[in-house]
Design a protein that fits this description.
The protein is an alpha/beta fold. It contains 12 helices and 8 strands. The structure holds sulfopyruvate and magnesium ion.
């Protein structure tokens, strides 16, 4: 699963061949130029997710932070995201307002409260295929494996369709340790992971350890950041765009990606239709008023 934040990244991700897209909260915040700290509204996030769905031919998992508020907000959230056409929402067991998992100030939500939110989210959905992913932040907040495991059991009991075990460790050790314990449980609730701070792990290793979905949440965003910054610096320093021309996408490639060819096809068929109408009207001259009609 690849993290995206807008229509352009969703188009590229669909073409690249990932199985699903992650509508990244961090990515959406970054593309709005604001901190990943519950600054944008639910409507902003849902509009971005809707744009991603519209530009994608794959299922979209929407990162919905903590669910944007209380139980009533969560119910509205489920309806909003279902209407937007996302396949799944992911909510994390932290307090609103949240902080990005790699920053300080992590506050876990009480386990009972978050479990109830999962149950409520499942009750609120209308499409039976819609999925609710419960994201465990125990390892992020320093609450440990035991806390993560207890919470996982509660969320699974309350109907979570999948669990996302998040970690900021520099290797996959704690994620794989959690997965091993989870595999011993009599449950078919799958585990997802986000190898941001432990990028050296392979899909094969995570898969063998019991992780069913791997979310590359922010690599495309960080690639774009690097490329944009470098390109801007080089143009400014050189006083010409010539120095970057060979390293950047061709305008044709961008036009093709965003569907300009289809626009031309529609223009041509529309013009042909208009022409056809004109010829038909010419062949049958408009009736001149007769004495009878008058
Ligand atoms: C996101 O992509 O917004 C995530 C994943 O929540 S992370 O930022 O890696 O915590
Ligand atoms: Mg996020």
């Amino acid at each position: 699963v690849i993290g995206v934040n807008d229509g352009l990244s969703a188009l590229l991700a669909s073409r690249a061949g990932f199985d699903a897209l992650w509508a990244s909260g961090l990515g959406i915040c970054a593309s709005h130029g604001v901190p990943d700290a519950s600054i944008l509204s639910m409507s902003d996030f849902a509009a971005a997710a809707g744009r991603i769905v519209a530009s994608s031919n794959r299922p979209v998992i929407a990162d919905c932070d903590t669910g944007f508020g209380d139980a009533n907000v969560l119910r509205e959230m489920i309806r909003l995201y279902e209407r937007a056409g996302v396949a799944a929402v992911c909510i994390e067991d932290k307090e609103f307002p949240k902080r990005n998992s790699f920053s300080t100030g992590q506050k876990l939500a009480p386990v009972e409260e978050f479990s109830a939110k999962i149950a409520l989210a499942k009750e609120a959905q209308r499409d039976p295929d819609f999925m609710v992913v419960a994201r465990l932040e125990s390892l992020i907040a320093g609450a440990g494996q035991e806390d993560a495991f207890e919470r996982a059991c509660c969320y699974a009991q309350c109907g979570a369709d999948a669990l996302l075990i998040h970690s900021k460790a520099t290797d996959a050790g704690e994620v794989l340790a959690f997965a091993e314990r989870w595999a011993a449980e009599d449950t078919d609730v799958p585990l997802f992971a986000i190898p941001t701070t432990y990028p050296t792990v392979t899909e094969t290793d995570l898969g063998a350890g019991g992780i069913s979905a791997i979310i590359y949440a922010n690599q495309a965003l960080r690639a774009a950041y690097e490329a944009m910054e470098l390109t801007m610096r080089r143009i400014l320093e050189a006083g010409t765009a010539a120095v970057v021309e060979a390293d950047i996408a061709r305008i044709d490639a961008v036009l093709e990606l965003i569907g300009m060819e289809e626009i031309n096809v529609v223009d041509a068929s529309f013009a042909a239709f208009v022409q056809h109408m004109r010829e038909e009207r010419r062949a049958v001259p408009a009736a001149t008023p007769t004495a009878q009609a008058v």
